[in-house]
Amino acid sequence: MEDQAVRCYRHPDRETGISCTRCERPICPECMISASVGFQCPECVGSGGPAPAGASAVSGTVRRIRPDAARPRTVTGGAIASDPRLVTKVLLGINVALWIAVLVAGDRLRNDLVLVGRAYDLGAMEEVGVADGEWYRLLTAVFLHEEPMHIAFNMLSLWWLGPPLEAALGRARYLALYLLSGLGGSALSYLLAEESQSSLGASGAVFGLLGATAVLMRRLNYDMRPVAILLAINLVITFYFSNIAWQAHIGGLIAGTAVAYGMVHAPRERRALVQWGTCGLVLAATVVMVVVRTVQLTG
User: Fold this and answer.
1) Residue 171: C-alpha distances to residues 44, 156, 174 (Å)
2) Same domain, yes or no, for 26 and 162?
3) What confidence tier does 124 reach under pLDDT thresholds 50, 70, 90?
4) What is the predicted pLDDT for the residue at 56?
5) Which segments cross the bilayer (predicted)?
């Protein structure tokens, strides 16, 4: 028998997997209010005071909670964390720390971490790049920035898009989404860009989060117009300015959208298999692109 979708008690048209930690009624992201542990609904926050021990209020009644009751889960089946912004904060910290490190250490550190297919390093007097076995550049470039406006724009976008996704997906799935989006952007850039062209920045990962936001909003029956307008503006900017690595943006967008679709539309009876299987397929596609380009450059 097909499982009935759980819907927000204040917005019956919106599916959700998040519950109030006090009354356990299902709530959508619009109704979630951060608490010291998890989220609470507006009515519990407004009433104040703790809920009765071992009980929860539902529709004006009090029901007993079994000691072994399952922990509330997110819409994708992830555990609800006490701090739904923790992974986003860590990612922000890594980006900022690496930006400061490049400012202190200079161009040498940036050149060692930036994404480049194949180029000749005059300082080291040798060929460098992903094609020469430096595959780590596909990931390090995702956390690398140069200009203040570049990192400021990406980090503001991460802070705006990240926490709602982290709360909805759970920490592990959200981190997988971010990393696979970044790697997907790097892989497509490596595949299509000139071999000596360097690129850096979290834009690919951010575009992945933007695509995931659209998928999640569509799944929860939210108004799609704001995210559609934002996506359209970013795509226009991507192709208007010649110094932007459009390949990374598109690669991240495709990877993030694919990962998010697999996560939020996975059937409950095979949820983990479908979700992590989708991540595996996106990672496999990334590896294929990298291998194909490496063969082109070294064959």
Assistant:
1) 25, 20, 5
2) no
3) low
4) 40
5) 174-193, 199-217, 224-242, 273-292
In a domain, 81, yes or no: no
Which residue's entry shows tokens 């000749």? Answer: 120
* Cα torsion angle, 66, 67, 69, 74, sign: positive
Q: Is residue 67's pLDDT more than 50?
A: no
DSSP string for residues in 188-200: HHHHHS-TT-EE-
User: What phi, psi does 124 have (nearest 5°)?
Assistant: -90, -10
- Domain count of the chain? 2
Identify the domain boundary among 72, 97, 113.
72
Report, as residue numbers or ranges, the catalytic residues. 203, 249
- b/e 1-23 (16+ beta carbons within 10 angstroms → b): eeeeeebbbebeebbbbbbbbbb
Domain coverage including residue 169: 86-298
Average pLDDT rounded to a whole number, residues 139-155: 93
Indicate whether 68 pLDDT > 60. Answer: no
Residue pair 170/77 in contact (Cβ under 8 Å)? The answer is yes
Rounded mean pLDDT of 136-145? 95
The whole-angstrom separation of Cα 282 and Cα 178 is 12
Q: In this structure, is residue 79 part of a structural domain?
A: no
Residue 59 tokens read as 């529709």
Do 200 and 284 belong together in one domain?
Answer: yes
